[in-house]
Amino acid sequence: MKRTLINIIICITLIFFSINVSAQKLRSEVFDLINLEYPGLKEVKILYEEGKNAEAAKALLKYYRTRTNIYHPEVDLKNLKISEKEKKWADDALEHTFFVHEGYQPSFNYGKDINWKYWPIKDNELRWQLHRQKWFIPMGKAYKITKDEKYAKEWIFQFMDWINKNPYALISKNEYEQKNLNIPFEDAKENAQFAWRPLEVSHRLEAQIEQFIYFIDSPNFTPEFLTEFLLNYHLHATHILHNYSEQGNHLLFEAQRMIYAGTFFPEFKDATLWRKSGIDILNKEINEQVYEDGGHFELDPHYHLAVINIFCKALQFTQANGFSNEFSAEFLNKVEKMIIFYMNISFPDYSNPCFSDAKLAEKREIINNYKKWSKIFPDNKEIEYFATEGKKGELPAYLSKGFLNSGFYVFRNSWTIPATVMVLKAGPQAFWHCQPDNGTFELWLNDENLFPDSGSYIYGGDDKVMSERNWFRQTKVHNTLTLNDSNYQNTNSKCLLWQPNGKVQKLVIETQCYDNLKHRRSVFFVDNNFFVIVDEAVGNGTGKVGIHYQLKEGEISLDKQKHSLVTCFPKNNIMLQCFSPDEICLKEEEGWYSTAYRKKKSRPAVVLETQKNANKPVSRFITIIYPMNDKEKNELFATFGNKNFDENGLKIQVKVNQKTYNLENHF
Fold first, then answer.
1. Structural domain count of the chain
2. How far apart (Å, rounded) are the C-alpha atoms in residues 40 and 436?
3. 134, 168, 426, 611: least CB-packed within 10 angstroms?
4. Which helix (H) or strand (E) holds 293?
5. Omega before 418 cis (within 30°)?
6. What is the structure's pLDDT at 441?
7. pLDDT recorded at residue 631
8. Of 206, 236, 266, the domain-final residue
9. Which residues contact 496 (CB under 8 A, 6 or more apart)?
């Protein structure tokens, strides 16, 4: 009896709390934020000046429901669709099971009385991205398609619940306490690190535009709620305006979304200021963050793609609403260079290398990107080719391509399957998303990637999460050289030679990767068929020098005496053999790679090692990577022509099945 009574009291409390949280009041202060002289707001102005705030709010809602002069280029209400996945997110959200992150599935339930601080795994992304409210747009689509008011009611409830439980605490304690909120200042301040981080605020700023479009006609979208919505929206934009991130892709995302805010809600007095701030930042940062060759300075293919789309979304949104002249011709040229860069570092299946923190996107998603880009650059036949999967347009007239500013080099014998493509990364000093992996590469053979990069697996959080991230960031789990298995101290490479044409294509890059050791890597692409890699470790560093190779998942066969391996994959296979004037040994290592957040695969990995002492100024290796058929038995051999390290060049002799190649470079 006592337990039943307690349960009844709890239920009544929850019902009361729910009603209290979801209840809205007319926020008349919003009219001070709106330019009532804006075309179409005459009735709103008259009613407000007469003190008829409720009627003014009704008139404002009517204005927004009938407004036709503002466009969202990515929302087509006449052809609106919702995927099965999105529909599930929308339906799950009705029960407060929120889709927060693809890496954490199935989704977590956040409770009948929503706990916006719930943090089941101490991964920062899980808590940050909760506040991006990714399920709200699917709820909007579900509502617009079905007209079922349960989606609108629940969206409004959750919207107001979030506002009440995540107060703006980035002000002084005194100012905060004057608001008479029920949440202690210190608790609100801790929560604000996640709920009010500028990147998450900007995400909501953009997403709430779509939500507004989908839900605006709902009877549950009342004049009172409109004032709550607009007041909250203005706070978001004002927060970003004064708290932009310092640099990187976060700053670009925030700027693009401020352009959206100032363009979609021109009725706000500050709309022009918001839009101008975003445009000014993008015009400036495209030259700060993007190298002259088109590469983004974080040296991460995934974020490079994201940055292209930031710039393109800003262009499309402003073009749709008559503000495109605020971007310069130089801006457009730089965006086009970024697309050409991404096109070149991609493989024939449209996938990109997973260097640094990069992920793989679905092929259809990448093709859709090219379609959007082609609309912005209709005269570019190469973009058109990839947008139409070769049905229209033209392939680039070249094959191999180097991007010397950003340090990406592509050896290629074909743009289409079958193809051999190596993408090597050895760029300048980069930022958080970049890894200490200078000299690493991915190698595509025929129709698959045989040497995928390790990726990143996870970002950041508590000690356990960071240990998982740090494993994938190690230099030794990339296709490059290490001293005593330690991470690079310096990540700034320079190109000594790039020759992308002829029967033997050549690249030489050099990195002072440790204070006491530099790594020079020379790559020869021979007969558009196989690779010879020469690694030279130069300096007074001592200990274990290793050359690491990481392959795709599958079986390999090792011959430790010959320092060679042969892959035993179902389709495409290679033979890899290493030669050195020094005594070397071949060892197996732990191998993993990740192409999506919190998803990883075990794979074979090896290291070829030698000991370097104080009397030995250089350690040298020659590795041949040769494609092979099932029944093929290859005889490989290589030796140095110049017995000592030469600062100005290199000579080696390579034999493959009795054919001799004399390879050299000079610079």
1. 3
2. 56
3. 611
4. none
5. yes
6. 98
7. 63
8. 236
9. 508, 509, 510, 520, 667
Query: CB–CB of 594/607 below 8 Å?
Result: no
For the record, the structure tokens of 2 come out as: 């006592």
Q: Is residue 644 in a domain?
A: no
Q: Does some domain include residue 245?
A: no
Structure token digits, residue 160: 């107001």
- The CATH number that applies at residue 467 is 2.70.98.70
* Main-chain dihedrals φ then ψ at residue 112, nearest 5 degrees: -60, -45
Residue 105 shares a structural domain with residue 191:
yes
Which DSSP category does 269 fall into?
T
- Threshold 0.70, pTM exceeds: yes
Element (H, E) at 442: strand 440-446
- Provide the 8-state DSSP code for 404: T
Same-domain check for residues 482 and 442: yes
Reading phi first (left if > 0) and then psi (alpha if -120 to 50, else beta), residue 249 is in alpha
Question: If you count them, how many residues does the chain have?
Answer: 667
Last residue of a domain, which of 204, 236, 268?
A: 236
Question: In this structure, are 48 and 91 located in the same domain?
Answer: no
CA distance 504 to 122: 51
100 and 163 in a single domain? The answer is yes
3-class state of residue 335 by DSSP: helix
Statement to judge: residues 588 and 488 lie in one domain: yes
Q: Are residues 42 and 112 in the same domain?
A: no
Token code pair at residue 616 = 């030995």
Give the model's pLDDT for residue 652.
Answer: 97
Tell me how far apart the alpha carbons of residues 151 and 156 are, in angstroms, rounded to a whole number.
9
Q: Can you read off the two tokens belonging to residue 484?
A: 């005593």
Q: Give the pLDDT confidence score for residue 9 in this predicted structure.
A: 34
For the chain of 667 residues, list the mean pLDDT of each consecutive stretch of 10: 39 38 82 98 98 98 97 96 98 98 96 97 96 98 98 98 93 84 88 96 98 98 98 98 95 98 98 97 96 97 97 95 86 97 98 96 97 97 98 98 98 98 95 92 98 95 94 98 97 97 97 97 98 97 98 97 96 97 97 96 98 93 92 88 91 96 95
Nearest to 234 by CA among 35, 380, 509: 35
- Helices then strands, each counted (H, E), the chain: 18, 24
Tokens 């020094």, residue located: 582
In CATH, what number is assigned to the domain containing residue 186? Answer: 1.50.10.100
Paired tokens of 329: 């011709």
The span from the first CA to the last CA of the chain, in angstroms, equals: 90
CB of 195 closer than 8 Å to CB of 130: no
Active site residues: 303
pLDDT at residue number 179: 82
With a CB cutoff of 8 Å and minimum separation 6, the contacts of 267 are 34, 35, 38, 41
CA 155 to chain centre: 28
Q: What are phi and psi of 80, to 5 degrees?
A: -70, 135
Q: What's residue 657's pLDDT?
A: 93
CA atoms within 13 A on the CB side of 608: 30
| 605 in a structural domain | yes
d(CA 332, CA 338): 10
Find the helix or strand (DSSP H, E) in which 607 lies.
strand 605-612
In a domain, 497, yes or no: yes
* pLDDT on residue 22: 55
Alpha carbon distances (Å) from 187 to 158, 181, 402:
20, 12, 51
Judge if 471 and 587 occupy the same domain.
yes
The pLDDT of residue 181 is: 82
Tokens coding 631: 């029944």
Cβ-Cβ contacts under 8 Å for 72 (sequence gap 6 or more): 209, 210, 213, 264, 317, 320
Sign of CA dihedral 315, 291, 303, 340: positive
Query: Using alpha carbons only, how large is the chain's radius of gyration in Å?
Result: 29
What domain range includes position 29?
A: 24-69
Do 124 and 34 have their domain in common?
no
